[in-house]
Sequence to fold (321 residues):
Amino acid sequence: MADSADLYRTVRLIRRFEQRAIEMVRSGVIVGGIHPYIGEEAIAAGVCAALRPDDVITSTHRGHGHVLAKGADPVRMLAELAGRETGLNSGRGGSMHAADVGVGVYGANAIVGASAAIAAGAAWSHRRAGHDRVAVTFFGDGAVNQGVLLEAMNLASLRRLPVIFVCENNQFATSMRVQDTTAGSITGRAGAFGIPAQSIDGMDPETVLTAASRAVARARAGDGPTFLECLTYRFDAHHTWEYSVRPRYRTDEEVATGRERDPLEIQAARVPEAVRARIDEEIEDLLDQAQRFVDASPEPDPSGALDFLYAGGLRARGGTA
Ligand SMILES: Cc1ncc(C[n+]2csc(CCOP(=O)(O)OP(=O)(O)O)c2C)c(N)n1
Fold:
């Protein structure tokens, strides 16, 4: 079981990774921008701490935190964001489609809600193979009205699949407030399928870990899915594109209030200062190493742009096959 220092390490790694990635967006090393996970780190850290290495997750467009918390290499993840050959997916996945099957990351996913069906499928295959591996799917409040998520919940409940549905309710889908998009309640959707659901404080890593551990135990025992609505707040932009466009969908005062409870500070208060200092230093060293790795890594060769698209291979136009 993860202790307080382990959780602090994960929250801190995600926070600093995201801050470095934002700097690299600003300097043009990461092209196309990112969806920062700053403020929501407790959810990835707490849920993934409840999992075994052979359990799997599926993620979202805001997925860096999930990928890191499940154990992907931050160095190769940063190279992936920068589109380098040395990245987790040879630079082809990028920010919104990073995957690392070896550590159970069955992909971030830019299609809102879609990764739930992948998690349900993974859980079903585990069950059929006689394994007790669990699948977690992360998604935002914006996904709760997507048909594919509701279909995945129905299937998971019907077949008692070992899936945990983790809704990261940060109160916004891009610039739309959840109360302007969602009739009824989020947990009520799970109730309609007979899935036990709980609304929890998604800013506290230990609260998330406790709830996720219960859900994992239930899934592993064959008792089926659980739904966790984690109440959280996005501290930064929906997407780094907002830095230049500056849409006004929430006031500065509202953001300041939302940032008052910071998962990093909540977890830091539980860890002795000397331990924190050592962890912080290790993370800065690791991220320095990651940035040097990115700088030294080649850009992909354009002639390979179509590699990996089809199992049978496909050549660029003008090719011979
Ligand atoms: C099916 C689909 N519709 C629309 C979009 C465009 N889109 C990208 S992110 C986003 C908002 C998602 O909000 P939420 O699920 O709450 O996640 P958050 O961004 O708050 O983490 C939308 C609508 C998309 N990627 N996929």
